[in-house]
Amino acid sequence: MEINNSSLAGTACAPPHKFAGVQTFPINALPAVQLVSEDIAELSHSFDAKWKAVSRYYERVNSDLLFFFSDIAIQAEAMGAQALFASDNMPAIKATAPAILTPRAADVPRMQINAQVVRAMAQGFPGRSIAGLVYGPFTALGQAMGEQEVLRSVRDRRGELHPLLEKAFMVAESYAALLMDAGADVLWISDPLAALLPPDAFEECAGGYLHDIFAMADAGKTMLHICGDVSELIQPMIETGVSGISFDQCMDLLAVEDQVPWDVAIIGNLEPVEVVGMASPEYTAEASRDLVSVMGILPNFILSTGCAVPPGAPLENVEAFVNAGKQAMDEVQEKAPALREISLKASGGDGPQTVELVREALSNDVDPLLLAHSGLIRSVRKSSALYETRQCYLPEILLTVDAFCQGMELLRPMIAKQGGDSVDVVIGTVKGDLHSIGKDLVRIMLEANGFGVLDLGVDVSAGQFAQAVQEHSPLIVGLSAFITSARRLLPGMIGEIRQAGSSGMKVLVGGAAVNGAVASEVGADGFSPEAVSAARLVRGIVNAVRR
């Protein structure tokens, strides 16, 4: 078997990305507004207020890349659109531009303020990188003209669109030059509307303009963020000449890492709203460590958020993200070469070589939990991500699972001694049913996602499930039913299991004898048709509980 692992192969001779010293950062600096008495509208128009907020923010948040509290309306406003400013919301466009203007950025007061803040950051935070955040011409034109109007023009009036895009490009280019001259050393472009372009129109309507703006950065330190699913745009984004791609939180980095060359940084992509914005600091730190555990072994990975952290995000969460992320990155990258080799061999289904590499790493005092999460578990999670995006198939996953299991046999006793053997999920095939392959694969997928699993085996009665629930207090119980007679038992079994567990415990079902409708009929909380989606379902439930 051969799985594409170009992101792991050839590591020793891989060129580094261009962002030395940039390891972890949240996008933008919007929570800074919490640190001053002035509101968002005042920050948008006052150098003193914005600098006070941003400086206090970065004195507290140890980010490796600094932003100046940017808003998406600024270029469209300069081009003639009417902006709406509020005390508690980010600036937005309330009326489109009657005509597209092309002022010099140095003559636009709000752009001047941002350049002043960049200059102050360069002086006040020496040695830390500063982002000059500019919006792509396609997005800026969408703000100025109306997004739907611009998108319609892509197909039926593209000839009329180009002169307008040229004007938007002139404003973006002038603004980028102003920020870089003020001291920004990383040119960051956000182009969220470009995600809605057909792939065959990206180069003409967005990519070519981005390429020309990126060419302005003398040191070549450029980053591009496009919101949403950019699976079909990764290669066109790379062709802009960008040296770092920031991925939205909806993207599974494991599924796309092989498409990104070594000299382009993979940036991302912790959920900024539901995690950093709404979860507890403890969960935010845990989620940061989990992301690093699977991506931190790559030398071109930079930990960040999937988009801008909202203004109301608790500062404690932002700090937890940065601090936990930095610590995890240090721990993982110190042992990255060994972890990369283990993940590569396990992903390729080479069990004997995987076992040998695990033994060698243990002899070199690599922590067993680190070997499990960033070596073996990563391999299965990557195969699962490729499976869900139709880049590999079940036979490949099964071989990866075999190698994973062989390597884990060495690690399980050591992990148990470290207290890493708690039970999150109890699973089993229901009474009268002896089918095991589906249930076994679910167990492995759950373990590969970091969950403690108690597998009760096959032909499991309601009483056995109930006893396990009472002893271990799992968050989830999973029942597998492959035959009709087993399905008929589910309502009674689920009722007895619920009586034994807590009110928050969830019961899930799967197997050939059930589907979504059956799950609802028998009183289950969810259904999954196969192991990969079962792991995703469990992860979502557990994450919701732990937040």
Describe the structure.
The chain contains 22 helices and 15 strands. The chain is of the alpha/beta class. Helix 5 crosses helix 6 (147-156).
CA(first)-CA(last) distance:
39 Å
Helix content: 40-55%
Main sheet summary: 8 strands, parallel
User: What's the alpha carbon Rg, rounded to whole Å?
Assistant: 26 Å
SSE arrangement:
Elements: E1 24-27, H1 40-45, H2 47-60, E2 65-66, H3 74-78, E3 82-84, E4 92-95, H4 109-124, E5 129-135, H5 137-145, H6 147-156, H7 158-182, E6 186-190, H8 199-214, E7 222-226, H9 234-238, E8 244-247, H10 253-256, E9 265-270, H11 272-277, H12 281-295, E10 301-308, H13 315-334, H14 336-347, H15 351-363, H16 368-388, H17 394-417, E11 425-429, H18 437-448, E12 453-455, H19 462-472, E13 476-480, H20 484-500, E14 506-510, H21 516-521, E15 526-528, H22 531-546
Parallel strand pairs: 1-10, 2-5, 5-6, 6-7, 7-8, 8-9, 9-10, 11-12, 11-13, 13-14, 14-15
Antiparallel strand pairs: 3-4
Helix pairs in contact: 2-4, 4-7, 5-6, 5-7, 6-7, 12-13, 12-16, 14-15, 14-16, 15-17, 16-17, 17-18, 18-22, 19-20
Quick structural summary:
By secondary structure, the chain is of the alpha/beta class.
Observed structural traits:
single chain; 547 residues; alpha/beta; 8-stranded parallel β-sheet; 5-stranded parallel β-sheet; 22 helices; 52% helix; elongated; disordered N terminus
